[in-house]
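ugh ok fine here u go
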Amino acid sequence: MTVWLMYIALGAFAGVLAGLLGVGGGLVIVPVLTFIFTAQHLPEGHILHLALGTSLASIMFTSISSLRAHHGRGAVDWPVVRRISLGIMVGTFGGSWVAAQLSTRFLKVFFVVFLYYVATQMLLNIKPKPHRQLPGQTAMFGVGGLIGGVSSLVGIGGGSMSVPFLVWCNVAIHRAIGTSAAIGFPIALAGAVGYVVNGLSAPLPPYSLGFVYLPALIGIAAASIATAPFGAKLAHSLPIDKLKKIFALLLIVMGTKMLLSLF
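structure:
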């Protein structure tokens, strides 16, 4: 029962983040699931793979709830979503295959480095100066592939990369957040399928579908669907920059805890 409550609480928090900051919550879901799975004594060699796969699977549900809320406020640029989605899905599926070949230790190091990068970006309020328009279809495919590939390695919906990219291309911040929420769905879909397929032959605990741990998925998805619209509502009324700095400090704490677990 305690574990189920932890899954639900994690999902509720991730849902608010999805709506509020345009991220799928994976930056929180992955490290917290790593701690929970370790306490549950799941197979050590696949703990991070399970956390990554489960995170992406949960973001499928979170992103749908979040994008509906943003769409209702006219904050999703659907032509951009269509242009970038193919590259996103190819990059994410390929990235999930690469991740399946890597050790948990390597993935942990990669994830911690990424956490520190995102936290630094948020703390220092580093934003690319808007000075250009969105590129053509070929370039959008390449950008989508890069965002999808990195997202699959760290189990996120890509908001920490897609929002800055869209802002750089002169997309207004609230519209960039809403569009990022929509982009999170093809990332999560391709990533979840990739982790399921690549984990089918691995020795995993009961209730696993490839590298997706179903009890965690159910708890996180159910709660995040309920809270994502609330986060989207807050995004249009709260000071996003201040909230990002608070979130950045949380990321540093979790990243440091994961780093220490390597020793």
